[in-house]
Every structure is written in C-alpha cells, then in structure tokens.
Amino acid sequence: MSEQQEISLSILKKRWLKFKTLKRGYYSFIIIISLYVLSWFLPVLINNRALVVSYEGELYFPVFSGYYAGSTFDQDVPGEAVYRQLDAKWEAEDSDNWLLLPPYPYSPYEDITVTGNKMFDAPSRTHWLGTDNTGRDVFARLCYAFNISISFALILSSLNYLIGILIGGSMGYFGGKFDLFFQRVIEIWSSLPMLFVIIIISSIIRPSFFLLIFIYTIVNWIGMTYLMRAEFYREKSKDYVAAALSMGQTNFKVMFKHILPNAMVPIITFFPFAVVGGITALVSLDYLGFGMPPPTPSWGQMLDVGLSNIPKWWMVFAPVSAQFVTLIMVVFIGEAVREAFDPKVYSRLR
Amino acid sequence: MSNNKLVDVKNLSVHFPVHGGVFSKRVATVKAVDGISFSIGKKQIVGMVGESGCGKTTVGRAMINILRHVSPDVEIGGSIEYHFDDEIVDFAKLSSGEMRKYRSRVQMIFQDPYASLNPRMTVAQIISEPLQLHTKMNAQEQRERVGWLLDKVGLQPEQARRFPHEFSGGQRQRIGIARALATNPDLIICDEPVSALDVSIQAQVINLMMDLQEEFNVSYLFIAHDLSVVEHISDKIAVMYLGDMAEFGNAHDVYHHPRHPYSKALLSAVPLPDPSRKNRDRIVLKGDVPTPLNKPSGCAFRTRCPVAEPSCAESKPVFEQQVKDHFVACPIVKGA
Ligand SMILES: Nc1ncnc2c1ncn2[C@@H]1O[C@H](COP(=O)(O)OP(=O)(O)O)[C@@H](O)[C@H]1O
Ligand code: SF4
Ligand SMILES: [Mg+2]
To answer: Does any domain span residue A298?
Structure first.
C-alpha cells in the first residue's frame, strides 16, 4: 500500500474499529440496539388489538385507531372487543369477516376483567411467561417495560450529560467566580439525602415518566458536571486552545468545537455505566412503589408482586432474568468501550 | 528608526495572584514578569533568552493577550503598543472582545508541537480555521491556500487530510508554522519552537523559519533558553532573568560585548566554535534561580551574581541605555 492510498483515520474511527473487534461488547451493542429499536414497534408486535379487521366489507384498524366496543363487530362482551375470541369465532364459522392479530396477541394492560383471562396462569404456548396476580400477560409486560427502562435510562443519562457539559464545561473553562459559585452549590446539593427527597416528592406528587426523569436529573447532574469540569479545566490550558483563542475564535466555538471533542473519552466510556445506573434507579423506585404509576409495566413493580407471590416462580424469574441479561449486556458494552478507548494504545508517547 | 517600530513594550508586568485557605484569599503573588521594556522593529527578529521559568512564555502570551483566559485574575501592567500600518493599539489595555479584530496581526508558534495542534482536527481543518475567521475565502480557495501554505513549510498538500498524530514532531511544528502564517501576521511569537525537537532537525526548522520570515516580511520574537540558537538569527537580543530584563541590544553587541553579569555568565557557557575566543573564562553560576514568588530585594540576580556589591540589595537597578542602543540593568557595570 502506498503512502497516499493509506486512509487517514481519526482517533474516534480507530476506536470504533477496535470496539468492533471486541466481540462480546460489540454483539451486546448490536443486540441491545436492535431490541431497543424493535421495542418501538411493540404496539404492532405485542398487542391484544387486531392490526386489521375486515367486518362486513369494511376495514378497521384497531391498533391505530383505538377502542371499538364488542358490539361493533356483533360480539357479546362487555366493553372493548376481544379480538382473539373474534378471530377464533370467525375462523370456526368460516365467515367472510376476518382479522389480523399481532404476532403475540396480548397486551400488558389486559387483566382478568377481560373474559377468558386467568390469574397466575403458568407459562404455556399462549402465555409464554404466564400471567400475573391480575391476569396480565407477563411476557407482554416484560417487553413493554424493556422499552420504558431503556428510554428512561437513555433520556436520563443524556439530560445529565447535557447539564454536566454545559455547567461543568463552563465551570472548568471560565473558572473564577462562576466556578466557585457552582462548587458551593454542588457541595450543598450533594449533602442532601436524595433518596428521601425523591420518596417525599413522589409521595406528594403522583410520579410520571417525566417527573421521575426530572427528579433523578436534579440528583444526578453533579457526577457528570464534576467530570466535565475537570476535563475542560485540563484541556483549556493546552496550547491548541491558546492557538484557537489567539486567532480570535470565540469562547463558544473553543468550548464546543475544540475542547468538547477532546473531552469525549469520559463521556463515551462512562455512558454505558450511566445507562446501567438509570435502569437500576428506575427498578428500585418501582420496587419501592415510588416509581411509575400503575398500571405502567415495569420490572421493579413486577419484581415486587413476584416476590409476594413467590410460589409462582415465573413472576420472579421473568423480571429478574430480563434485568440481569440487559444489565450484563450493557456492562459488556461498557467494558468493550473502555478497552477500545484505552489511552495506552493511542497515547502520544506510543 | 522609531517609525520602523512594530511593537513597543514598556514597563510590562504580569503578576499572578496565588489564592489559598478556606476563603480563597490572596496569599502571595507570582511576579512572572516584573516591569520589562523592549521593542521589536518591522521585519526584525528579536531573540529572547533566559533560564526556564524566567517569564519568557508569559511575555509572549501577554503580547498576544491570552493570559486572562487561563488566569482570569492576572494583573497586567505597563503597555504593549503595536504600531500597525493604520493604527496604534495597546494590547495590554484591550479586553478579549476588543482584541478580536487584531487577532490576525500577531500569531504564536508554541513550544510543544504535540499539545499545540488539536488532535481531533485534520491538518486542513487546523490551517483553514484562521482563514475562516479572517478572510472571506470560500471552501475551494481555502483548500488551495492550505495546500500552498503546506508547500511553503515543506509538507505535501496531500497531507492536509491527515491528523496530527500521524506526523513527527518536526512536521507538526511545520504545521504550527503554517497555521501562524495563514493570517499574514505582522509578528509571530516563536516560543522555543525547536527546543522540543530532535537536535538533528532543529536546524532545518530554524532555517525554514528564516526563509519564511524573508518571504512573508514578518517580525519574530524568537524565544529560546539557549543563546547559541538565537545568536545567528536575531537582529536584537533580550536577556531575561527572573521576570526582569537584564540586557537588551543589537545581537552583535550583546553577543560579543555583553555587559550584564548574567549575560556574561550565560555566554561563557555557550560552546565557542571560534578558537580565538577560547580563552574566555567560563563563569559558573552558584546556587539555584530564586522563585518569582519571593524575589530577592534590589537586583534579583544578586544571590548568584559574581560581582555583587552590598548596594545591589537596596534598590532595583534601573534598566537604562548604557551604550548606544544597548540597555542594561546593572549600575555596577555602567562605567566599564
Ligand atoms: N498561569 C500562571 N499562574 C501562576 N503562575 C504562573 C502562570 N504561568 C506562569 N507562571 C509562573 O511564572 C513564571 C514564569 O513562567 P514562564 O513564563 O512559563 O517561564 P519560561 O517560559 O521562561 O520558562 C514561572 O515561575 C511560572 O511558574
Ligand atoms: S546590580 Fe549588582 S547584583 Fe545585580 S547584576 Fe549588577 S552587580 Fe550583579
Ligand atoms: Mg516557556
């Protein structure tokens, strides 16, 4: 290969290539990302509402348009139509009406009030992971909870990062009084007993997804802020920053175009672990009963009811293994990222 | 002669307050630069020498007004008056906002060729940044200009797409030179540009810098800790000691007829290629350089000066013209 043909790679690209060679972390990354993307399509994959209903020549799309009473399709049930039974009935009658169910036709919210559902149903071909104490399908709840857990952790970590980079970056970059002021704020803040604060807040206000994110951000912004403060403080005294300033670059550009890309190592290597923290935080709050409002599917709540019905093993087994597998995969990703970013390989002394 | 001046530094002082204790009270002051005066003419090269820690870098950074950035509470006194073609401005009095329009006029080449290039940017991005800030060139013109500049500093234009970590120290320093030249500055502050490089390539880089100085009609403040680097290339030489200017004059005069005891000691340590001057005695300085936190009273050099007298402790020596165009801060050698 001649000198010219050789491609010039940025350090970030080299690290990505290195990450790809670390199979365990790379495959975990692919799996988690695919599952998460897939989980956004859960309403068409796991749902008790039919995708399409063709009834007396007319088409209905219950998944997208919502509630249809059983009477719409001449079904004798209280409230909403039960599409599974409708399907079986039309099949048996060999009627011209037909419907298309999602691949797994149970919803995470549908309990014993729906005809045909039973409490504590053991795992079977219809209910892969059985049903819980109110007759809801455990597998459906598990999958929806996965989406909520990961979304929660991702939004929480990103928000913490945003605040950390803005406040911590400015503290490190500008220093002086601004830095001193926020240092004192952080000291006072970190001395507050945060778990109690959260429990108090959520016992006053009914928690929701975004309220929980807000509360956790209020607690968690400090970690990233300190990390970014240190990064920006170290980088700003390097000569490439002096060079940028001496050619008249603005502080904003220096901070975000010059320093931030050089502060990416802790940002990226820490991210998987921040996600782990976010997932566990939500699980513990849900478990304690201060998390997402019922009937939101959540691993913590599932664990809670599972533990109080311990002979029904599937109710404990399901949330525990889902959490275990998810967390361990995220940790594998974190490990691989850390190895790919190991400064020893690309240090300037190499 | 005076209308040929580019920059006139008068009584420049740079003090860094040191804070400590619970309330971050000021506990001491680092007098990194303590009232120095010198000047640089248009298209002139001024060599500045002095031991490590004597304040050379601080002078350079004060002259491009970027000290406040790392140390917001730094105290800068005196004046740094630039005589640009169209106006006279004192950089010591400008805020960073007011500085912006003059940034293209003075540039710096840094000592550490590794830290001075952003590792996340390609060479093209590094060199075109000043072009984006100070010219109206479009992307294509910028690309051409970057290629032209790389060629000027002895690199291949095709290397523009590479990242700094793919270059050697000497090549990186050439990239830094290209960046400094990009804005067509009047003055480039060269802060020990070769001291981090292999001895074998130091001469190449210095020769390149000399050629470029001619071609771009730029002035240099060439900082070095070693007189031998500076002697051949400078029009004038400034010798600093512990934040003070010991001696400033034409390169030939300072090099061949040093007056200040410190300059004499520095020169006696320079290996001489000229056998006729072999007989000059080597003056070995005793002791260590005191810290700028706690400078000796009177003449800062008196703790190590071989010809010190009791009066040297009393007052700071006046920095004055002792011979034509030759300024010295030592009353003891004045009559000699
Ligand atoms: N930002 C700063 N804050 C406090 N002290 C400083 C700062 N920059 C430099 N100094 C001190 O000023 C003195 C001169 O430093 P410097 O200008 O780097 O010297 P030189 O370049 O001649 O080696 C040193 O004692 C150094 O510790
Ligand atoms: S003033 Fe005194 S101590 Fe200072 S250089 Fe002259 S002789 Fe030495
Ligand atoms: Mg220096």
So the answer is: yes
Residue ID of nearest Cα to ligand 2 atom 3: B302
CA of B283 to the centre of ligand 1 (A): 26
Q: Do B116 and A245 touch (CB under 8 A)?
A: no
- Domain span holding position B216: 2-328
Domain that holds residue A91: 49-101
Mark whether A57 and A199 lie in a shared domain: no
- Spatial contact of B106 and B189, defined as CB atoms under 8 Å apart: yes
- Asked if the structure places residue A277 within a domain, the reply is yes
* A280 and A186 within one domain: yes
Comparing CA positions, the residue from B268, B270, B241 lying closest to residue B330 is B241
Q: Are residues A162 and A305 in the same domain?
A: yes
- Residue A148 CA to residue A170 CA, distance in Å, equals 32
Q: Give the C-alpha separation, B119 to B128, whole Å.
A: 15
CATH number at A288 reads 1.10.3720.10
List C-alpha distances in Å: B255 to A239, B238, B246, B248. Answer: 32, 11, 13, 11
Residue B20 is classified by DSSP as: E
Helices marked H in A120-208: 138-163, 169-174, 176-190, 194-204
CATH of the domain at B123: 3.40.50.300
Beta partners for B108? B189
Quick one: which H or E segment has residue B97? helix B96-99
Q: What value of ipTM does the predicted structure carry?
A: 0.91
Size of interface A-B (CB pairs under 8 A): 88
Of the candidates B61, B100, B108, the beta carbon closest to that of A248 is on B100
Nearest to A11 among B112, B119, B134 (CB): B119
Claim to verify: residue A218 and residue A282 sit in the same structural domain = yes
Do both A95 and A179 map to the same domain? no
User: What is the b/e burial string over B199-230, where b = at least 16 CB atoms within 10 angstroms of the residue's CB?
Assistant: eeebeebbebbeebbeeeebbbbbbbbebbbb
Copy the structure tokens of residue B196. 């981090």
Identify the three-state secondary structure at position B82: strand
Asked, for residue B335, whether it belongs to a domain, the answer is no
Q: Is the residue at A250 inside a domain? A: yes
The pTM of this model reads: 0.85
Q: Where are the beta strands (DSSP E) in chain A?
A: 52-55, 58-60, 98-100
Residues 6 or more apart whose Cβ sits within 8 Å of residue A39: A143, A144, A146, A147, A150
B200 is a domain residue: yes
Q: Is residue B336 part of a domain?
A: no
**Residue-wise pLDDT tens for chain A (350 aa)?**
344 445 567 778 888 999 999 999 999 999 999 999 999 999 999 999 999 999 988 899 999 888 998 888 888 888 888 999 889 989 898 888 889 999 999 999 988 888 778 888 888 888 889 899 888 999 999 999 999 999 999 999 999 999 999 999 999 999 888 898 999 999 998 888 877 887 888 788 888 888 888 888 888 888 889 999 999 999 999 999 999 999 999 999 999 999 999 998 888 889 999 999 999 989 988 888 888 888 899 999 999 999 999 888 999 999 999 999 999 999 999 999 998 887 665 544 43
Minimal CA separation from A190 to chain B, in Å:
19
How many structural domains does chain A have?
A: 2
Whether A94 and A146 map to the same domain: the answer is no
Judge whether B208 lies within some domain: yes
